[in-house]
């Protein structure tokens, strides 16, 4: 194919393109003759010397301590009057012998009743230590940056606002361990790893021992310069029996009080989640009264800690709790109402000024074939079931989507006008855990036939989901589980949430990557986790673009997770930014290169 000479001369500069291409034409109507010329390399010898390609660069620690000029709520000395009267404050000491003997109870909430909570749960592994470990300074050698990847991670000019929330996240059940110590009651997750479940390899009774190593873990965050730490409080550590009116565990309150104070001491700002999937079993058995039980627990926590906590998350990923917490879709309404009750109590009764959010799970569903109307309908329907079902009432003040409510056997009724009014607007920004995206198409038998059959594996969304494009290519680099390095969908995920639900802001509250077969690699190979670095950098660059080019108010990003942890029964899915040696008796941690690169990204992009 020939180019017209008029076009060609337009793209040439002074008759040359890069000094290598020259266009010549003998006639204004004849095609030009192209000739190329290349610079001849000048070969030469010189003396050889080794060039130092690495340098000893160290992480910059946080300034500490941190304090707030104005408390976010009244101190406990003033707020304690808001607590119900007649509460018993105590602690329990687990006695497995008494549990096994199943001695008769003498009181509804006495020591024997506490032992009986654990009758059906025992573990092969026990925590190797049972007291809080004093922190030690992080050795300087641990804070050496890995080899630089420049120019591959060269930084663009776009900046993030100075108040951008960035840091790391974890959850109590996944890292604490010590399930049966210091008065904690059981949660619905505790069967994972119990002997009865025949899964001692994922024994959460030990996990990463963060319950006694939290001071060292916070010191490690501060040494690397990580300003925000999102963690959760175990409901059953505060209220061992779970339900309203039952005793409150003094040791649990003291533990989290010190955890928050330790964060502030080291210059780390706490973000506190009240429930991260670890509901007490007694509460799940009485979900119709969730608001009563949840308020009872939340008041104990917030009256004590709210003066020092600028951000609260009420529930973690409640939109996917059907099946994992309770089988009925009515649980979603129960959670919405409980969330709203705590939000309004905090703002209106306690007088708190912190920001409160609720965290949704969602890997955006895209139509497998965007030109196919049934694929588009499948994507929309899936999103209505995963986000609209709670997002409509919470963020728009609108009813649950009609295609959800009209699905046969859905066990979910519409919200009343009063319930809509109570729920609407009870978040200060919305949080999302968008690890990746996925493609949707209808169930093989069609949406209508599938939705009429509650026993169908794809019911009720009735969407067939895949990470393989219509042309046969994977959407991105696959992980050991379900995450993909697929940054091309980050802006669509944020755009969908922003333009559909119109929140005041969006927090990316979890995002992360677990490299394939990471658990089989050597420690050095685990630490040099280039795939995770690429995941974070590609993802965050798209966040920058969404902010600057799409006008989306992304208020922060929190990496999952602070440590390799118990991913609900698996230590092979290693999302952590730090390794954990679970065999040395000390649970030694090591930073991974992705952690350094993650911190470096924000140091280059946060406006000073």
Automatic annotation (TrEMBL):
GO terms for biological process: carbohydrate metabolic process. InterPro entries: GH (IPR017853), Glyco_hydro_1 (IPR001360). GO terms for molecular function: beta-glucosidase activity. Residues 1-22 form the signal peptide. It comes from the Eukaryota. SUPFAM superfamilies: (Trans)glycosidases. Keywords: Hydrolase, Signal. It holds the Pfam family Glyco_hydro_1. Belongs to the glycosyl hydrolase 1 family. This is Glycoside hydrolase.
């Amino acid at each position: 194919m020939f180019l017209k000479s008029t076009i060609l001369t337009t793209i040439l500069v002074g008759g040359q393109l890069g000094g290598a291409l020259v266009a010549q034409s003998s006639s204004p109507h004849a095609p030009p003759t192209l000739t190329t010329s290349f610079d001849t390399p000048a070969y030469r010898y010189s003396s050889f010397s080794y060039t130092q390609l690495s340098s000893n660069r160290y992480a910059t620690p946080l300034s500490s301590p941190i304090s707030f000029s104005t408390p976010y709520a009244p101190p406990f000395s003033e707020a304690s009057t808001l607590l119900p009267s007649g509460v018993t404050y105590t602690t329990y000491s687990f006695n497995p012998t008494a549990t096994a003997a199943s001695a008769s109870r003498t009181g509804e909430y006495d020591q024997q009743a506490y032992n009986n909570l654990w009758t059906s749960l025992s573990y092969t592994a026990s925590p190797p230590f049972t007291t809080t470990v004093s922190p030690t300074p992080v050795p300087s050698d641990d804070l050496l940056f890995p080899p630089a990847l420049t120019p591959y991670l060269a930084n663009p000019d776009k900046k993030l606002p100075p108040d951008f929330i960035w840091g790391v996240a974890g959850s109590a059940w996944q890292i604490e361990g010590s399930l049966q110590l210091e008065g904690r009651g059981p949660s619905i997750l505790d069967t994972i790893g119990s002997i009865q479940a025949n899964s001692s390899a994922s024994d959460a009774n030990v996990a990463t021992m963060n319950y006694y190593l939290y001071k060292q873990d916070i010191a490690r965050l501060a040494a690397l310069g990580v300003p925000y730490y999102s963690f959760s409080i175990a409901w059953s550590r505060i209220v061992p029996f779970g339900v309203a009116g039952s005793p409150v565990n003094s040791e649990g309150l003291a533990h989290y009080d010190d955890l928050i104070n330790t964060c502030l001491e080291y210059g780390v700002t706490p973000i506190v989640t009240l429930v991260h999937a670890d509901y007490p079993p007694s509460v799940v058995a009485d979900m119709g009264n969730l608001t009563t039980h949840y308020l009872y627990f939340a008041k104990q926590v917030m009256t004590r800690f709210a003066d020092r906590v600028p951000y609260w998350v009420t529930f973690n990923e409640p939109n996917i709790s059907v099946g994992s917490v309770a089988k009925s879709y009515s649980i979603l309404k129960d959670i919405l109402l409980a969330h709203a009750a705590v939000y309004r109590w905090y703002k209106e009764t306690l007088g708190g000024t912190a920001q409160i959010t609720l965290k949704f799970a969602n890997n955006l569903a895209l139509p497998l074939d965007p030109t196919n109307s049934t694929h588009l309908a499948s994507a929309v329907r899936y999103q209505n079931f995963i986000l609209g079902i709670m997002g409509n009432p919470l963020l728009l003040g609108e009813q649950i989507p009609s295609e959800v409510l009209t699905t046969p056997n859905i066990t979910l009724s519409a919200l009343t006008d009063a319930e809509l009014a109570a729920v609407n607007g009870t978040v200060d920004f919305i949080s999302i855990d968008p690890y990746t995206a996925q493609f949707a198409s209808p169930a093989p038998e069609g949406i209508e036939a599938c939705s009429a059959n509650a026993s169908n594996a794809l019911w009720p969304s009735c969407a067939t989901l895949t990470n393989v494009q219509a042309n046969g290519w994977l959407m991105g680099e696959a992980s050991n589980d379900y995450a993909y390095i697929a940054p091309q969908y980050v802006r669509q995920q944020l755009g969908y949430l922003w333009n559909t639900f119109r929140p005041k802001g969006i927090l990316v509250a979890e995002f992360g990557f677990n490299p394939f077969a990471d658990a089989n690699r050597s420690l050095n190979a685990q630490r040099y986790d280039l795939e995770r670095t690429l995941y974070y950098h590609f993802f965050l660059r798209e966040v920058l673009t969404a902010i600057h080019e799409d006008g989306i108010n992304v208020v922060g990003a929190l990496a999952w997770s602070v440590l390799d942890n118990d991913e609900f029964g698996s230590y092979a899915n290693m999302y952590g930014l730090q390794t954990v040696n679970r065999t040395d008796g000390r649970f030694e941690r090591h930073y991974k290169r992705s952690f350094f690169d993650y911190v470096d990204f924000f140091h280059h992009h946060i406006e000073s």
